[in-house]
Automatic annotation (TrEMBL):
Record protein name field: Class I SAM-dependent methyltransferase
Domain Methyltransferase type as annotated: residue spans: 51-151
Pfam families: Methyltransf_12
SUPFAM superfamilies for the chain: S-adenosyl-L-methionine-dependent methyltransferases
Organism, as annotated: Metabacillus sediminilitoris
GO BP, sorted A to Z: methylation
Keywords: Methyltransferase, Transferase
């Protein structure tokens, strides 16, 4: 399998102890709040439909669910034990009444939610994915984004298209990214290529204050 998240299988006891908070990368509050603040700055309102792609155990999700109106949060992840941990976070935060929808799926089958979305986010997800899997994500996302809808994704950047050696990501606390294994880095032109001929338009946002130097890119549906 092409990323480490297939292997995580948390027991109920581990979930009770909160082990999932480290399994999805740590910095639980900092990165949770960072993505929430960012999406609000981009215009996310309580009545918008939000799709959280690779939502994990809801590091950002808990903030989004609290803010959004009932039924407006949809999260998808390939790992069922991380989703289970997310459900326990929802209970712990007293947010059951917000009725979020969580799905386990590893092929980005967003149509299973049976709705269209105004906003989507994939925080620290493309950083773990090979390009053909990112392509699958973008193709499925195009089908479920409302016209004018926006998708924000983080990635590790490399400055040259032709760079094959590992990259020590600056200001990342020691993250080393690679061209062909997790964590992956990409040149921005790759995303332009992936959406060519689609109804998506891309904007490079770059630095958005991520503590491991993940950059932000946005895709808007025309
Ligand atoms: C570093 S975690 C980030 C989780 C969450 N976005 C957050 O900020 O806490 C990466 C997540 O992406 C999920 N993931 C990786 N590949 C995926 C795929 N093909 N489909 C759905 N989820 C995926 C992993 O299971 C994991 O939960």
């Amino acid at each position: 399998m092409w990323n480490q998240y297939y292997r995580i299988n948390l027991t109920d006891q581990e979930i009770q102890r909160g082990s999932h908070r480290n399994q999805i990368g740590g910095k639980w509050n900092e990165i949770g709040e960072l993505q929430f603040r960012f999406m609000k700055e981009q215009g996310l309102q309580p009545d918008h439909e939000l799709l959280d792609i690779g939502c994990g155990s809801l590091r950002g999700g808990i903030f989004f669910i609290e803010y959004l109106n009932e039924g407006k949060y949809s999260g998808l992840d390939l790992n069922s034990s991380l989703i289970k941990a997310g459900q326990s976070e929802i209970k712990k935060a007293g947010l059951m009444s917000k009725k979020p929808t969580l799905l386990v799926n590893d092929s980005f089958h967003f149509n299973l939610f049976k709705k269209k979305f105004d906003y989507a986010i994939a925080q620290s997800v493309f950083t773990h994915l090979p390009v053909n899997v990112i392509q699958r994500c973008l193709i499925h996302l195009e089908q479920v984004l409302n016209p004018g809808g926006k998708f924000y994704a983080t990635f590790f950047e490399t400055e040259s298209k032709f760079h094959v050696d590992p990259v020590n990501q600056p200001n990342s606390g020691g993250v080393v990214t690679k061209i062909d294994s997790d964590p992956y880095h990409y040149h921005i032109s790759l995303f332009e290529y992936l959406i060519e001929g689609s109804s998506l338009q891309m904007e490079y946002i770059g630095d958005w204050g991520h503590p491991r130097n993940q950059k932000m890119i946005s895709f808007s549906k025309i």
